Amino acid sequence: MRFLSECPWKRLQELRALIPNVPFQMLLRGANAVGYTNYPDNAVFKFCEVAKENGMDIFRVFDSLNYLPNMLLGMEAAGAAGGVVEAAISYTGDVSDPMRQKYSLDYYMNLADELVKAGTHILSIKDMAGLLKPEGSKLLVGTLRDRFPDVPIHVHTHDTAGAGVAAMLACAEAGADVVDVAVDSMAGMTSQPSMGAIVACTKGTKFDTGIALEKVFDYSEYWEVTRGLYAPFDCTATMKSGNADVYENEIPGGQYTNLHFQAHSMGLGNKFKEVKKAYAEANKLLGDLIKDKQLPL
């Protein structure tokens, strides 16, 4: 709509007509809907209503700061439209590190209590920076599963550090029902962990997906060719590998990719380490100001 002046519903309608039996899912930023500012409540409700009418099924509702009032509005709007509500906990920090108390296991459990109380159909962990390590995955998902034995748990991560497959396997072991992956030719780095790797690693186990690896290979080959057609616009072109320093700077996947591309386009590629450090320090300062209520949400 913004750049190509397209009807925002046309592609959704076409996809739904071609794929009638697979649930579609979208992100809903609570009171921000799909924008970057708070919209009037009736606009959020109407957006969800029209999205549902045009083929959307599951609304993953989140707030980047886990601000509950924003999330509750989005959940109510999605539910009123008849959609499946998937309330998402935005994850940061490291629950397996006892020295890190700002975003502790108790913090996430208290938030989950509120989301389940509000009636979410699915509980999601939105690990937007790819910070979940295997031990933290087992701790967080295992505790959620023990407290909410009947609520489906859906985990989303990014593979920036390269540990995404290990983390998602640990989530499955701990009781997660669904983990997000990407087709192999589009996976890794700031994308999601490899679909083929997950399918292969679970084959013959109690977590066997039932998906034939040969079909995964064919699917990946198609998207490998397609991705090549869009190579001039691929913002990951300047990235050669993942980087575990994301555990320090905690930059979300989409922001990491954009920041990397922008640094190189401005001739600062050789200073990307300093750029990431400055970004992390600015984020920490902003978080402290919000926590101390010196800056309004």
Automatic annotation (TrEMBL):
- Pfam families for the chain: HMGL-like, PYC_OADA
Domain Pyruvate carboxyltransferase intervals: 1-217
Recorded hits in CDD domains, A to Z, give:
DRE_TIM_PC_TC_5S
Report the protein name in the record.
Pyruvate carboxyltransferase domain-containing protein
Gene source species = Goodea atripinnis
What is the taxonomic lineage of the source species?
A: Eukaryota, Metazoa, Chordata, Craniata, Vertebrata
